[in-house]
Fold this sequence. Notes:
Elements: E1 11-15, E2 23-27, H1 28-45, H2 62-73, H3 77-95, H4 99-119, H5 124-144, H6 147-167
Antiparallel strand pairs: 1-2
Amino acid sequence: MLKIPPIANTRHVMRHPMNDSENIETTENETQIILILSLGLFACNQQTKKETAQGDWIKGTENEKIKTIEKQFRGFDNAMIETGYRYQELYWAGQDQNWEYADYQLEKIKITIENGLERRPKRAKSAEHFLNYALPVMKKSIEKKDAEIFNKNFQTMTINCNSCHSMEKVPFFNVQIPTERQSPFKK
């Protein structure tokens, strides 16, 4: 038990924090007790930073955990969802002649497809022409900063998208040039 040494029983008058016309009278001992209790309550309220492990939902052996993570990343479908979004952004960036944004989206399309190919290397043959021909042609049209050239090459890139889908036996994924802007980004 904490013992507080006796201090002269001096009375203090403090102004009430909410009402200037009211005073609060305390002794030094009472002030010390209030201070110690306040500090004690403050200390009790402090939470130690508990390390929380991320991934508690991933169960099993090391191999089973890796399989679960792989399943969450999925195959190529998530890469195509991101590619589709960036395809639209690329198109509207070209229409706005926002060449920096267009270049950014084109680079992200390339990275997204390459990352998808890491997960599904069997798709590499189909994507080869797209990565090695269609994207570099788009890159050059962006560098020229010419909307007419951009639109012509964008149409060719769209044909390449559909060609790749046909090779992968999903021709029903028929990519069309966007007609409505989905994104709020605009130059």
